[in-house]
Amino acid sequence: MAKKSQLARLVKKTKLVAKYATKRAALKAAGDSAGLQKLPRNSSPVRLKNRCAITGRSRGYMRTFGLSRIQFRELVLEGKIPGVKKASW
Fold first, then answer.
1. Domain range for residue 78?
2. Is the domain of 43 the same as that of 55?
3. pTM score, two decimals?
4. 5 to each of 11, 15, 48, 49, how far by Cα in Å?
5. Any idea what DSSP says for residue 67?
6. pLDDT tens digits, one per residue of 36-84
7. What is the count of structural domains for the chain?
8. How far apart are the C-alpha atoms of 51 and 68, rounded to whole Å?
9. Helix spans in the chain (H)
10. Tell me, what CATH number does 62's domain have?
11. Residue 2: what pLDDT?
12. How far apart are CA 9 and CA 20, in angstroms?
């Protein structure tokens, strides 16, 4: 499980990105780099880190499910993710 502080930081960054998304898009379209630099650093979507929705793990993240590989495997084996089953050949 990731530290609570890391998860809290991620939530804070996500809110900032959403808050400044329209303003950032307008400044980018206008080509105003000075205006972009005045925005908070954490309002940039590049600074977001993909993390598992259950554990907060950052490595082995699967984008389509929003889970780490470990949690994905556990949920699949329990049959909690519809349409996915263990491969056998």
1. 50-84
2. no
3. 0.79
4. 10, 15, 15, 14
5. E
6. 999 999 999 999 999 999 999 999 999 999 999 999 999 999 999 999 9
7. 2
8. 7
9. 4-30, 33-38, 69-78
10. 4.10.830.10
11. 84
12. 17
